[in-house]
Design goal:
The chain contains 13 helices and nine strands. By secondary structure, it is of the alpha+beta class.
């Protein structure tokens, strides 16, 4: 049995380029035995499927886009069980320090933001420079688990980022948005997904950078839009990717929206699950594609028919929704 475990760990190690610098050298092989178990957890598999779905849709050129998931308590417990935290990991003595999280976690790294509301929260997040097309094949490299400290102004890596990686450069935006959405939804919102759909960036060249204009344009393309995002679409002006200005403006926009356009950059959506967040992105992109196609057919936005405000209100009433009055 011991020989089989060692062999499995060695094979897994060969798949990943290099060992994590956070692992003590004597613990390297034993820790690798747990990598596949973390990857196999349901919330990780859901996340991987979302990332791969975006790649399949063509929303992630090169290393474009990023995503994160705020773990529930049962998710954290499952990860700790996989890593042997609080118990006895394979190959470790009962008195070994590996029974604590410090044995597998890295050093604390300062964030550019401070969100004490997320004290001790964990995020599954994509790695900076990683390609979404590789997430399904190399999740241990392209993803990582981080824990925030009590002040919410620093994080440490608990798992993943094999080969010396680190979280996306937009980690500050993720932390701020998760804090805002968690408060606004009483903890229900857990997923943040950012992608670069071609049609969304194309419309940034054609439409005013105004939340009302974008919301009404998309609402009026198909009836599903009012059902899926009755609160409308937020709008964030053009900022340097990964900047604090982008993080702050997005956090404000997301207080009242589950989706926001990053001007000349892409789309940012949130949801309670990976399916919910991805589904919202899919609807926004499809609505933008319908608008683009209709403009091409009509040589501009002078359409013969369009969903009226009365139609939008009837849809909202039928589904028991309250549309954002700012956009009607």
């Amino acid at each position: 049995m011991a020989a089989e475990l060692i062999d499995a760990a060695r094979k897994q190690q060969e798949k990943v380029q290099g060992k994590s610098m956070r692992c003590k050298k004597s613990h390297g092989e034993a820790r690798m035995a747990y990598v596949s178990q973390v990857v196999d957890l349901e919330f990780v598999q859901d996340f991987v499927r979302m990332c791969d779905g975006g790649w399949q849709q063509g929303w992630h050129e090169r290393n474009g886009g990023n995503a994160s998931y705020r773990l529930a308590e049962e998710d954290i417990a499952a990860v700790k069980a996989c890593l042997g935290v609080g118990g006895h990991a394979i190959g470790f003595a009962a008195s070994d320090e590996s029974s604590g999280l410090e044995a597998v976690a890295g050093e604390w790294i300062a964030l550019e933001v401070c969100e004490p509301f997320l004290a001790h929260e964990w995020l599954l997040i994509t790695a900076t420079g990683s390609y979404m097309q590789n997430v399904v094949r190399l999740p241990e490299q392209c993803l990582g688990l981080i824990e925030l400290n009590e002040q919410g102004d620093a994080y440490r890596v608990v798992w993943g980022f094999e080969g010396g990686g680190r979280p996306t450069s937009e980690v500050s935006s993720h932390v701020m948005i998760h804090s805002v959405k968690s408060r606004a939804t009483e903890g229900a919102s857990r997923v943040l997904y950012h992608c670069h759909p071609t049609v969304v960036n194309a419309l940034c060249l054609a439409l005013p950078h105004d939340a009302r204009e974008w919301t009404r344009t998309l609402w009026k393309t198909m009836t599903e839009c009012m059902v899926v995002f009755p609160e409308g679409i937020g709008m964030v002006s053009c900022h340097v990717p990964g900047s604090l200005d982008l993080a702050r403006e997005t956090a404000v926009a997301m207080e009242g929206h589950n989706a926001a356009i990053w001007a000349h950059h892409g789309l940012c959506v949130t949801g309670g699950t990976c399916d919910e967040a991805f589904g919202l992105a899919h609807v926004v992109v499809k609505a933008a594609q319908i608008y683009e196609s209709a403009c091409a057919m009509c040589a501009g936005p002078s359409f013969r028919q369009q969903i009226s405000d009365e139609d939008l209100l009837r849809i909202a009433q039928t589904f028991g929704l309250t549309p954002n009055p700012k956009y009607l």
